Amino acid sequence: MSPRQACLQCLQRDPPALFEAALWIAAEHDEQLQPANLLADLHALQLQVSAGLPALPARELAQPLLRRLAELDYQEDDESVTRPRHALLHEVLRRRRGQPLSLALIALELARRLDIPLQGVNFPGHFMLRVPGADHLLDPCGGRRLYTRDCREQLYRQQGAGVELSAVHLQTADAAAMLQRLSRNLRQLHLQHDDPMAALKDAERVLQLGPPNLADHLARADVYQQLDCPQGERYDLERALLFCEEEGLRLQLSQRLRNLQRAPAVH
């Protein structure tokens, strides 16, 4: 079974094996990675975290869990340039540095093992966590509580003052949505670091993990363009046109397709 197949199979379990699936995503980019070994190694971290938690009801332990991870030096990476290793879960576990989503995936797995209620929230630009029913979010990077005003300010920083906070920004993310976001992050990071073959793996996975959309087909078309694969680029441009409602963009995509008409379909 390929790492991709193993990842998708993890989502078929009840409940989905989110953490293991994320490890299989990493295994697509590192042939030496053995997810089963990392799953076993995580038990040691679970013991470290558990030993530092206060004697409180499980519902009150999510923030202490995140603070405990921070005490153990699991932090948001502060390097000036974000790299794929900041999103690949095995590298985050090794270095104790990563993107908010990767740190959240570790926290969610520990919470699951310790019976602490915790959910992912697909907040724009900075993945968040939440205790079900709570009136605030939790930053996976240290456990800070974020109330409505804090979320609004965070959204302004990410998308500008013209964007209004809405329920869409605070939606709970299921396992497939989190893995799709992880795959989009990796797609972007691999492209930024001149690795289009790795980015293609991520772009394909994005489209397998959720309903297709305009942006994801355009992103894969751009990857195919870098790989000089006109047949693949043409396929995704045609699919993007099916989703596109903006006339100006439709004209651009149509022109791009015309430019590909005489390109040989050799891939």
Automatic annotation (TrEMBL):
Pfam (any one): Transglut_core2
Domain Protein SirB1 N-terminal: residue ranges: 38-183
Top-level division of the source organism's lineage: Bacteria
Family that this chain belongs to: Belongs to the UPF0162 family.
Protein known as: SirB1 family protein
Organism: Ectopseudomonas khazarica
